[in-house]
């Protein structure tokens, strides 16, 4: 009835995740943070990122990031949508041994939130490193490393990225109403809430 208590606490407990990693490739003239090298191999520029480190037990550190998103932008021209160039971005994740029961992906809006061969990393046994090269347009990008078990379609970002209750996140809330006269739940509301700024407009 209307006075029934809401007791769903245990079911609502879930990992907070970690802040996304990021890189800035708005310019190909200078190296920003996390960029190791920029070079031209015609017809494309190549950008090598510094090798990332797994951080499952790293102390939480706030990053003012985009929650996995990206935006296209360049610093040398006027129209970022038409003048931005495509560049090859090289990712490196050192790992002592390859994970035999699944694969590691570079994940976020840059992968369209999917797991495909385009964003699947390959293990280099000689360098003991997972590697991936992606063709991306100049801009500012967020990303994370996720592990996906063979035969599954569920990402595990805690294995490599860790999880912290302090992590800033956007949450998409769906509100349903069940009318006893019908056999379905009716969606009556949708709201995006930011964990640090609940009044933020999206």
From TrEMBL:
Q: Give one GO term, molecular function aspect.
A: carbohydrate binding
> Per its record, how is this protein called by name?
DUF5103 domain-containing protein
State the organism named in the record.
marine sediment metagenome
